[in-house]
Amino acid sequence: MKKFMAFVFVVLVGWSLGAQNLSDEEFLRVLRKGEGYSPQFKATMLFEVNNPGGAPSVAELTLYENSGKSIAVFLSPARDKGKVILQLDSKYWLYFPKAKRSTVLSPLANMVGNASNGDVLRPPQAELYDISLLEDTPKKGNRTVQFLASSRKAPYGKIIAYYENDKILATELYSRSGVLLKTTESLDHIKNTGGFGWMPVKTRIVDGKNPEIFTIITFSNVVIMKDMNQSWFNPNNLGRVR
Questions:
Q1: 114 occurs within a structural domain
Q2: What is the pTM of this model?
Q3: Is residue 165 part of a domain?
Q4: 128-149 pLDDT, tens per residue?
């Protein structure tokens, strides 16, 4: 497989660069080129939602990722079990098992808590954003990267990402009018068994207006897959996904 860097796997949960001592120029070159690649893998995602005034909630999903297209299958809660979300490029569908039909979704529609579809299942950012390195002193880490929307399909107007060498630490997600919508923080990383650098396996997504509203996503059981059923990645076949 090709080396890649998907700045945040899901804007929020992402693979980090595999080399620690890249120059700024090399860093951007690898980021722009490699951001379009990702391995085929399967993982379990646990969502823990904290919303003041409401009871904490939990959801578990199975994720299938296949180089720019993704599927998430709800395992819990019981009311959502069997629902499937498909991402193809910048388009999204939700499959309802009882009705046996799919409907089109917005990338900004919430998947679980304040984690949206476009956060968790996302197309390569290099196709939607102009990527540049900011010279300002980073708030965190040692590099600050700006993703500025270059397509109407981009869910956010601007994303600011903070790196420490080869690891992504945090992001800020802004609307096209410049309003801070969310922030994310990578809480834990693991070395990817496929040799593609570091993967944040625990990420906190925080509401831009009320920091007491947040969702924590934890990845487990990450398995690189050589063979994946390609017919699943079709809005007409989502009832077949297992």
A1: yes
A2: 0.84
A3: no
A4: 899 999 987 778 878 899 999 9
